[in-house]
Fold these 3 entries.
Entry 1:
Amino acid sequence: MILLRLISWPYFRKHILRTMLTAAGIVLGVAVFVGMHTANQSVLAAFSHTVDRIAGKTELQVTAGETGFGEDVLENVQSASTVRVAVPVIEAVVDSNIKGQGNLLILGVDMTGDRSLRDYDLESGDEAVIDDPLVFLAQPDSLIVSKEFAEKNGLAVGSRLPLGTAEGERRFTIRGVMKSSGLTSAFGGNLAIMDIYAAQKMFGRGRTFDRIDLAVRPGRTIALAEAELGAMLGPGFRVEPPSGRGQQFEAMLAAYSMMVGISSLFALFIGMFIIYNSFAIAVTQRRSEIGILRALGATRGQIRRLFLGESAVTGLVGSLGGAAFGLLIARGIAASIGALISDVYGVAQQADELATSPALLLGAIGIGVMTSIVAAAIPAYQAARVDPVQALQKGKYQVLSAGESRVRVAAAAILGAISAACLVIPLDRSRPVFYTGYVLAIIAALLLSPLLSLALARTIRPVLKWIRPVEGALAADSLIQSPRRTSASVAALMLSLALVVAFAGMARASYDTIIDWMESTLNPDLFVLPSQNIVVRTIRFPKTMGPELEAIPGVERIQMVRDARIVFRETPVMVVAVEIESVAQTTRRAPLAGDRDDMYRRAAAGEGLIVSDNLAQLQRLSLGDVLEIPAPAGLIRLPIVGIVVDYSDQQGTILMDRTLFERYWHDDTVNVLRVFLKPGAAVPDVRQRILKRYAGTRQVFVLTNGELKQYILKITDQWFGLTSVQIAVAVLVAILGIVNTLTVSITDRRRELGVLRAVGGLHGQVRRTIWIEALSIGCLGLVLGFALGAINLYYILQIVHHDIAGMRLAYAFPTNVVLTLVPTILTAAFVAAIWPAESAVHGSLVEALEYE
Amino acid sequence: MNERRCSHTILFVAVVSSFLAGADVEVLRAAEDARAIVAEAQRRTDAKSQRYEGVLQVFDAKGKISDKRWTFERLGSHGQSRVVLRFVAPPEVKGVALLIVNHPDRASDQWMWTPAIERDRRIALQDRSTRFFGTDFSFEDLEERDVNQNDYALLGEESIDGTPGWKIQSTPKQTRSSQYTRSIVWIRTDSYAVARIENYVKDKLVRRLNYSDIQNIQGIWTARQLEMLDLTRGSRTRLTLEKVQYNLPLDDEAFTLQAIRRQ
């Protein structure tokens, strides 16, 4: 502590900017970590909060995936001996049609019995009433809204509110206002209650419920009730506490969460290199100070602890700042994730509040401090190990000794060989081996980065000298003579760019694959949808619309599609029910496994199922495997008759014939109608006819093939929005690292630069020297980053294929992104050099010459 | 000496036994009397059918009054009856109907029909304790009960509105589920008409139903005004019966779910 106070504190104060830059590395890493995880947790917490608030006193919920189930199930559940009360529920998310208000969550309930489970706080106190319960039930346009929603929008009992329904826009009458309570805080207060049977009609649900909420009879346990209901209802139903839905939501987000995890870990890793760089430079800078301390009797241990202590303090300050900054950016990230979830998964979320977890914050701070200590460990060790006499010598310490170079090369070669050997065993056979090989490859690259930087610096020296004979040579020599100072910045930049290249490559490959799939499979001319958002399945069409559309002039064929998420082997996957016989005639793409004709024939006859390639990859399925699909009417046991490319859902898709779906789910409604036109029919004309046919009677949205593809690509863009975050991080890393390196470089070369100016060197020449050095560091980082990125891309594609989305993506180096990164990083490097260059130019010449 | 003591003991036991037996007999007689009174009250209101037009007024705790009107038709009596209750005013609720099928040995089956959405819904047994559309009657209160569904105990005699009456405690049998733990019923001694019912949940009085304006219509003493007080909420609902008729011809088919869906 004394040493920290007497030695470290004055150093921090004297080099406040460098200290801040050092801490900034940890700030960046911790901020990204905290921001992304807090945002993720906030969205999950918002979903769970909504589920909990709506659940009220519900102890168990009966569901059958997104499809819902027939009304007859309710009576069965109510008759169970362990059930005290069981009430049906429908949930629908609709656009509130109020500017700035977004979506409204409609809860359809049977008010005759629902109040046993949910406290509506309707008729108590002075603040909220329902006008007339019988009118509420008798009129299908009745709504009860939360007090918050009513006050925000100037609504009261009797006000009219337009909402989109299956029958088009309908004006609803507010017949009650709920006073503030746990229930009304669900969905950010944008909650409305409706009679369940009116909701069935308004949202085209036929005679189905989404779920049944129930409470257990006193004296009976929840486990007993689960067992009784499970046995009674069969495998097609899930009976679980409300929290189970939160877990399903989390499973749905697993892929996204994994990418967030990878990004945030990389950010911390990069921060570690910035710290390492700073401390390595600091050790160099304070060699004489170390020598004096050692000469005065300080032990190696004390020196080591001094630097570790400094790194711990820096890490703590940086982590605290990073945590605060992370919370600031978390809100923006949460909004972005919320929008992504809504557009990709059709689950509307409003994460209005941040779910700050003290455990996460403390963990992040702890990780930041540990990262800082780990990063400073090697410099601290090196500072402790050097002889006091050598410690008083300048310059030599920046050089890589031959011995050290050999050790690095040997270690890198061994690790690289082990990493290559690990590739022999595929990821799906042994995850530990694969990931070990991945980590070893990164470590090998890091070990080699100083030597590679040195080699590249020597390579570009002639070029730099050719561009600017004096400035170029000086810049190159600075890099060559001080590889330690340079390599950490280059390593940080290399890691950052490697991640950008990998994500960009993954995004590019995904785009290409999705486009290819759309071209060959999504080939209807028009798509008729009940809502603007294609993934929202709140509203459905009746089956009768199929023949109605077929009768429209210009229409050759209609395919009716019903899709819904179910839980298959504890994972939410998509079931797509369509007329397989018709699809066989319109789809051009051959299956990846199975005979095309046989596949379609058997699937159309209800004798088999077709699965998507990503489902087969993620669930380890093969042609011929018998699947057991839980459905309300029983368990479907059918073989896989074909494996196709289909990206309807990230977790995978099961395609079946509509008749099979109707038989097992008792549901003949439709989510999407695919329209194929007769030869010669004009798409705009038929589109108008469809809109005219249903004007005023039904809400329909008609998208052309091109518009739908644009929509899907837009969602894909959102999914890969993380890439933009990574690029921003890369730019910041570049600036931080290069400013840090140049600041020290200028201090180190103060005398050299002073001599230059003294013998007539112009300010412009000094500036250009610094600028060229910065741009050279940028170039080294770019070259090594792209090289490591090419390797990283391979690993990321394997992870995507086997662990995240099951997508078979072709390896393609993202040249477009790379070409964009070059000017971006070089510009960042130049910007980073501006201030150091000015400080080199405007420093005192006399002091520079006296510097010793 | 021992013989004397023994005989005194025997006499004592005999006296006590007879006293106790007498007490049991008294209790039994009282129970039988209570049941007999209730059975008689039920018998005197038996009719093949009934019809009336009802005016329902709900007075909430703040004094606000809402009015509705319905037609009430019943086929059969008590535990063997079926009821169709259909709202006729105001316009927002016109056509909403409730079908109640009463059973002598168990809870009734109830369905509600909503013409605006053309849907019926079953009122689950679990939901019978909820309020009937904002009134102070619960769905259970609308059931027609049979004398055999409860156990009775005569608590004595007490006047209601100056008219003497029997005070009887009624406890649902285990075979009949009820939201109420027990009820106290006052039956007028002169006409066997029910004058008041107080319903308890455990030891708390939750509802009181007063019968008034009792008239003899076609030989059946009928309360033309019923007022239910919800003592927890502080609100009351008044039902006024108009145009009461008994034993009129009613179509059996009209008391089915299909029939109320058609109308």
Note: The interface with chain B takes residues 74-75, 78, 84-86, 110, 112-113, 115-116, 123, 130, 132-135, 137-140, 195, 197-198, 200-201 of chain A (CB under 8 Å).
Entry 2:
Amino acid sequence: MEKRDLVSGIFLILLSFCVCVMAYKLGLGTGGEPGAGFAAFGIAALLGLLSIWMFVNAFIRAFRQGNREKADAEKIMWKKPLLILVILTAYGAFFNFLGFPLATFLLMVMLVWIFGRRRLSVALIVSTLTVALSYTLFVVALGLPLPMGLAWFFLGG
Amino acid sequence: MELGQYIFFGLQVAFQPMNLFYCFIGVFIGTLIGVLPGLGPTGTMSLLLPITFHISPVGAIIMLAGIYYGAQYGGSITAILANIPGEASSVMTCLDGYQMARQGRAGMALGVSTIGSFIAGSLSIVGLMFLAYPLAKAALKFGPPEYFSLMCMGLVILTFLTQGSMLKSLIMALLGLLIGLIGLDSFTAKPRFTMGFNELMDGVGIVPLVMGLFGISEVLLNLEGKIERDIYKTELTGLFASLKGWIEAKWAIIRGTIIGFFAGILPGGGAVLSSFVSYALEKRFSRHPEKFGTGVIEGVAAPESANNAAAQSCLIPLLSLGIPPNVVMAVLYGGLLIHGIQPGPFLVKDHPDVFWGLVMSMYLGNVMLLVLNLPLIGIWIKILKVPYSILFPLILFFCLIGVYTVNNSVFDIYLMVMFGFVGYLMRKFDFEPAPLAMAYVLSPILESSFRQSLSLSGGSFAVFFSRPISVVCMALVVALLIFQIVSSSFTRRRLRNAQGA
């Protein structure tokens, strides 16, 4: 726990420092006529102070505990969440190019497989159904302007 | 118009076929997400925000509110039958509800929970009707200093009530305030913290932020562990409970309603807080506190009544003062703003159709929920069996499409994914996302009332300590902060002594 507080403390101190600098550059104004950076500077300064407090507290606790509770923190499992985030970002990146139906199909195949390690046939069926139903709902019923991408190109649209 | 005329007007609005339809859709989806653990009302409401662009403001608000109070009903089904709180507000229901199911009294637990929720919800709406209107009238006299102090108080109380460290919650609230400042400054039209992205000129959208923090991060967290769903197979008989059961539950329902109603109004309060408080008080004043946790009906009736009462009464500060008391109301606040409606004292005057239509629709929504929950309970149990390997990809997909359709912008997808990652890390580092989301929503009003107050006073901060309402709020803020500092140092010292001994 202390280690995480130390890491987040350092990050927040740096963040508050950066925001303070940016807010100062925006202009603080005066008390009677506050500028665009006035409130932001105050909030960031307060954030910095609280982060320093958290950091110092965590440091003291870590110092007192020594090696006693080194194994207290559960490990963060980065692999799967990061993989999901990459897939979601890729969906955004290729959404306009591939179009809504194809991008959604590929997204669902990958997600169903990652979440459940299910057979490819199950993933394909779920993905096809999702595309068909969501197309009917969003494009046909609600008339949302979703990109058709390559599919649109091949259909000559 | 008199109150009676307003009520009649509200009924006319609520009974319009389309509004009835949206109310049904809201409570139906609410029950559904209440039954399914994983996605809460906050995520669902933000997921459906883009869809509400295509419907009338009244219909949209009726539907969004329906999701919240509907989720309170649905949450109890999972809590009682599967020992999994479908919603955070159903955690306490698990304790006695599941035990009752194991003893073959699942029907009674579900019946008392549903009918108790209906009674509590209906009574809470009456309270809302009689309190919100005069409060809105009184709030017309509020100036920028009062608004600033009131919002500060709300934020501090929220950070005080959240689980875990108050220091971390305060940090999150400050971070939320900073995120809320991104975009064009409303006074000088200068771009702030936009990093050169034109998409950020209007600020960070509420939909990518809330969906990321509450929707995506929730799914990411669920990736780590396997959620066990051991649905208790039992005959669902006695849904309307025996006379003895009702006699045992009646005072718990009444006490739960009262506690829930007031806990809902509190800044930082809501369904979760009310269910915890009512369960603790019910146990405290019970003649047989030792039986709590073994399957007593009061242990189900009190928290379920309380969370439903709170889910309706928390609309009071939002509608009458324009201050969301919790994060779900903050999303509703965002929904109202998107439709060009400013919640607050002028809402009742300028948009009586929204205010009274919503209040009256909640009566109808409660009746719909009664019908949805008792006879259709078998269907909800079947839905509970949908595998997570299909459910979670669908949630992620709906988040992606939902966020894209707000502005037809891929940038919002990136923003949501980023907030999803931030939300995931926050929970891993024991930071609560709720204060961040609420502070983000309040940030623009907080800043403008702060700057207006300073301009009015010629730069003197004494303006916040010279007006009665403002003084009371600020005094409470200071008292809470001091109390927290003193109590945490006291706890630390005691721990150190215990370790040393």
Note: The mean pLDDT of chain A is 84.
Entry 3:
Amino acid sequence: MSITIDQVAHVAKLAKLAFDEKDQEKMTRELGAILTYVDKLGELDTTGVEPMSHTSEVTNVMREDRVGTSLPREVALKNAPDAQDGYFKVPKVIK
Amino acid sequence: MEFEAVIGLEVHAQLLTESKIFTPSSARFGGDPNTQTDPVVLGLPGVLPVLNRRAVDFAMKMALATNSRITPLNTFARKHYFYPDLPKGYQISQFDLPLCTGGYIEIDLEEGGRKKIGLTRIHMEEDAGKSIHDANLAGEDTLVDLNRSGVPLIEIVSEPDIRSAREAYQYLSELKQIVTYLEICDGNMEEGSLRCDANISIRPVGESAFGVKTEVKNMNSFRNVERAINYEIERQTRMVLDGERIVQETLLWDANAGVARTMRSKEEAHDYRYFPEPDLLPLEISTAWIEEVRATLPELPRARRERLAKQYGIPEYDAEVLCATRDLADYYEEAAKHCGDPKLVSNWIMSDVLRILNEQKIDIGTFSISPQRLAGLINLILDDTISSKIAKAVFEDMLTSPEEARAIVEAKGLVQISDSGELEALIDQILADNPNQVEQFRSGKDKLFGFFVGQVMKATSGQANPQMVNDILRKKL
């Protein structure tokens, strides 16, 4: 399976990555090679095999509904580039 | 050409757990900004989510209350998009193996009869944080509060079975009643614990294919859901009649302006790149677990309305009003149990009790008159101790007094005068004092009957038994 340069551009846009034209071609080539390699799995007959989402057979790992401690606000905001009145502050995202 | 609307609703309901869905920080509403976070909520590297069992129990309650098929093996999935109130860059949700599928919610149609609105699915997910764009607070920027981030949600996706804004309203009301009866969500649209998006298209009546749909968001009250859907149906109809093409897009409802505005077109539509969440193991839901949850289900609103109407012989309308909340229905049943006339109890609750709740802006849970005391008051009317009119005054006293109705009536000497000798003597006196009116009445001025009743009531401070006063007056005149 190969991938088109448009698909690479689309995925890059969704992931908020920017490539110049040269890098886009390189990505297309390399991703194409990876996909072709993985495609080999398609040669196996998987009729009647349930899709698997996890390799572990463990299920139902849960916790009880109890409140634990929260981070102090100043710690929560410590890594934020900007903050105001206890809020994270970011560039305006809506008109 | 006649058109019909085809509407599907996506409803998000916040679950009333103590802690968040994947981490122990508090899920309480309304804390100071960013005081309910932890490394999982903040999406810091290296953290692992762990599922809250009660969130699953609550979601399962909704699945069972809507007759859905619970998926034996659930998985979680990452839904990717970029927004400042989503620190991880993905929301943990469910995709191909959701909690349940194939349920329904029944609604009452205005024209009579009922209709089942199919549910495509209900799945569990985490809420995002809250962005504040209000210029008064945020100025030129956007502020982010992550307290809400990670609060458990269920998303209830309906089939496109809804045909009008009114039906959408009914569906949403029924849904709210179910989640509040289940006590899994407080159902407050204004505060955002219940949120609704609508997918809307129109087609000529008789056509089976769907038209191009638009999605309307940001309708933060029941009333606005109805308004926004009507607006969008009218807009689409006008476009089709004018020969314009409807484009698939997402619209934001502006309640103040009463219009829906384009938020994004299909070209910009999100491509969420779902994949299985590797940090959460699959969730197996056994029959035993399902039965355990089923055993905790309360009587659901529809069943309760029907039972109340039948058991107490009250009109369907009364049953609907009384079953608005579980607490009010409990109040009614408790009062009815202690009183000989269930319909009279219903009248008192619907008129007087609900009026006070409304005036005091309180819930029935904090109402000062217990159901037993209300029943005691009504029983005094039933056994002719007081008239309905006096009862209204005693009711007002009871609002601020812990006393039983009987004690108030006795202390204030309000017991109804039902002694016929006493009433006859009084009436003789009144007739003697008003010879002109007696003459006028006897020569045909029937209306004066009320005048005499009024005089008797005045003389007894309203305590005369009205039926006896009528009888005696008729006899003597």
Note: The first helix of chain A runs from residue 5 to 14.
